[in-house]
Amino acid sequence: MSNAQNFSSSPGAARARGQLRRITQKLFQAAFVAWASFTLAFAILYWLPGDPVSIMLGPDAHLSAEELAKLRAQYGFDRPVLVQYLDALWRAMHLDFGKSLVTGNDVTASIAAAAPVTAWLAAISLVIAIGFGTLFAVLTLDLPGIPRTGFIVSKIPPVFVAIPTFVVGLLLLQIFAFTLRWTPATGSNTWSTLVLPAITLAIPGAGVLGQVLAKSLSRAYAEPFVRTLRARGYSEFRILRHALRQAALPAFTMAGLIVGGTIASAVVTETVFSRQGIGRLMQMGVSNKDINLVCGLIVFSALVYVVINLIVDLLYPILDPRVRS
After folding, report:
1. For residue range 95-105, what is the model confidence (pLDDT) as tens digits?
2. Most CB contacts within 10 A, which of 37, 69, 277, 288?
3. What is the H or E stretch that residue 187 is in?
4. What digits encode the pLDDT tens for the residues 232-248?
5. Quick one: which of 261, 120, 131 has its CA closest to 206?
6. Helices (DSSP H) in the chain: which residue ranges?
């Protein structure tokens, strides 16, 4: 009995309880974010002008008022809004979002088919963003043996963040697809079609990561360990590796936020490059007031966001012993 009491009061057990409590809190936050996102999307789409059935039928449909009323009843739009909301929420809790009002396809199946396209785009754009962001941060240091361009390079990340995504996409299309003809302009079936959308999506992320990492690196180089390593004769490359290891943690958190927000940026990027991913589905759903499709995509996006941030929160104490202690 005393052994069990000693174990329960040990620092390891206390850390385990704290970790479990933090995971539980994050799961409750995830559930709340998913519910709030679904509710907000349902309310906005319901109060937008236009009738979903009329939009679904198109401008060329000529139906009588009785036929329109019958179709509304068939899709459940004749019920009170609260009943519609509770029914949709109950089905969403079981990952059943019904069928798209436009295509007639199952919403969950449509999201599952489009998700890999956007996932590949997000993964490649994150790799590019990390590469460029790290390069910008290192060049701002004006290290020995590197051309002193820090002042100029430090101005590039804010510009990357400020330029709208659609402007970047259109410029890349004009230069590399239409003028130089190096890559396809549209599509989502081959690796070559990933190049321009991935760069477009990576540019804002590279700007944010570059700014965060540059500040962290500047603080790291002000630490005493840098002077100690130089006094011991360490090369600048080895010192940079140690400094990057210490400065990477804030950038790691920011990378998680960037991945979580990729779906929002993918709406513009996939529309510009005509890619059949989550962003294109969202654009189609909002344009056609497809409540089932948009609510399904909103819940999916919220879950992706909170899961990625949960993973980042769980990995942070592992990567930084100071947080764990």
Report:
1. 888 888 888 88
2. 277
3. none
4. 888 888 888 888 888 88
5. 131
6. 2-8, 11-47, 52-57, 65-75, 81-93, 107-139, 150-153, 156-162, 165-172, 195-221, 224-231, 236-260, 262-272, 278-287, 291-319, 321-324
